[in-house]
Amino acid sequence: MIEPTTSVTGRIRLLMKVVRVHQWVKNVLIFLPLITSHTLMSWDAHLRPALLMFLGFCCFASAGYVCNDLLDLEADRNHPTKKNRPFASGAAPASWRHGLLPALLIAGLALGAFIGFTATCVLVIYLLVSLWYSLHLKRKVLLDAFVLAGFYTFRVIAGHVASDIEFSPWLLAFTMFLFLSLAFAKRHVELLKLQDRQDADGDDKPVLGRRGYILSDLDLVPVFGIASGFICVLVLALYVGSDRITELYSAPMILWLLCPLLLYWLCRVWILSHRGQLHDDPVVFALRDRTTWFIAVLAAALVWIATTGTPASDAPATSRAPDRVLLAGGTS
Fold first, then answer.
1. Distance CA 58, CA 28 (A)
2. Tens digits of per-residue pLDDT, 91-141?
3. How many CA atoms lie within 13 A of 254 on its CB side?
4. How far apart are alpha carbons 185 and 71 in whole angstroms?
5. CATH no. for 9-165
6. How far apart are alpha carbons 190 and 211 in whole angstroms?
7. Taking a C-beta distance cutoff of 8 angstroms, is the pair 172, 236 a contact?
8. pTM of structure
9. I want to staple 40 with a disulfide (CB 3.0 to 4.6 A). Which of 32, 34, 100, 236 is the partner?
10. pLDDT tens, 73-97?
C-alpha cells in the first residue's frame, strides 16, 4: 500500500488521476455536431450550452470512474496494472471515498440546470447507464462492447441536445460503428493479456473473472471489431457521396480523401492490437500516438480545404448551415 501524499501539488496531481482527467478528452465529442454543422463560432446559441454540457459530462464521467473504482476495489488490488490506481494502492485518502462522489454529482447537476431540463435529463441518463454498466452490463458478452460504443455516441447526442442542432443520422451511425470497433479492440487487448498470463494447463477462464469473454473468443472478437470499422468507413463514404454534403462544403470532393485516411488508421489500430502492442485504453493510445495526431491534423486540413476551397461546378456558390430544431420545444 502507498501512503497518501500530503503536499498540495501532490494532492492536485492525485486528484487529477482519481477523476481521470485524461479521459475528459472523450467529451470533446459533444462539440462534434457544432463542427459538422459549421456553427462552432456561435457562442450564445450553440457553443456556450455545449461547453456547459462538456463540463457536466466531465463531472458525471469522473463520478462514474470514482464509483467504478470503489466497487472494484478488491479486484483492482489483485490486477497486474489496476492495482496502481489511487484507491486500490491506498494513495488516495480514505476521506475522498465519501466526499468526492457527491461533490462531482452536485457540480454536474448544477451545470445541467444552467442549460435546461432536457440537458439535465441527458446527464442523469448517462450517469444511470454508467452505473448500470459498472454493476452489471460490463460482465455481459458483446453487450458490454455495444454499451461502451453507445457511451461515445451518447456524447454526440448530448451535443445535439445542448447546442440545439438538428440530429444527423450520418453522424450518429458513423460514431456508433467507429467506437464499436474500438470497444472490441479494447476487449481483444484484454484477451491477449489473459492469454499471456494463462496457466500451463491452458484453462479457458473468463477475463480476470469479471468479464464473460473466454480465451476461445480471441479469434472471433477481432472479426466483430474489424467489420465495424469497415462499416464506419462505408458510412463516411456514403455521406460524402450524398446530396447533403454540398450544402456545407464548397469543395466536397476533397472529403473523399478522408476515407483512405480513416481506413488506414483503423487497420493500423488492429495490426497493433493483433501484435499485442496496442494500449488497453484506446483514448490513451490516441493521445500518445504520433501517427494518430498526424492523421488527425491532416484530416482537419482536408475538412478546412473542403469548406473554404473553390466550389465545384455542380455545387451551389454559397453554402448554408442545416436548419436547426429546438429539441425542448419551439424553433431556433
1. 10
2. 777 677 778 888 999 999 999 999 999 999 999 999 899 888 888 888 888
3. 20
4. 24
5. 1.10.357.140
6. 10
7. no
8. 0.82
9. 34
10. 666 676 666 767 777 776 777 677 7
21: cell is: 482527467
For the four alpha carbons of 168, 173, 176 and 178, in that order, the dihedral sign comes to negative
> Cell 495490426, residue?
271
Which residue's C-alpha cell is 483503423? Answer: 266
Task: Write out the chain in H/E/C secondary structure.
Answer: CCCCCCCHHHHHHHHHHHCCHHHHHHHHHHHHHHHHCCCCCCHHHHHHHHHHHHHHHHHHHHHHHHHHHHHCHHHHHCCCCHHHCHHHHCCCCCCHHHHHHHHHHHHHHHHHHHHCHHHHHHHHHHHHHHHHHHHCHHHCCCHHHHHHHHHHHHHHHHHHHHHCCCCCHHHHHHHHHHHHHHHHHHHHHHHHHHHHHCCCCCCCCCHHHCCCCCHHHCCCHHHHHHHHHHHHHHHHHHHHCCHHHHHCCCCHHHHHHHHHHHHHHHHHHHHHHHCCCCCCCHHHHHHHCHHHHHHHHHHHHHHHHHHHCCCCCCCCCCCCCCCCECCCCCEC
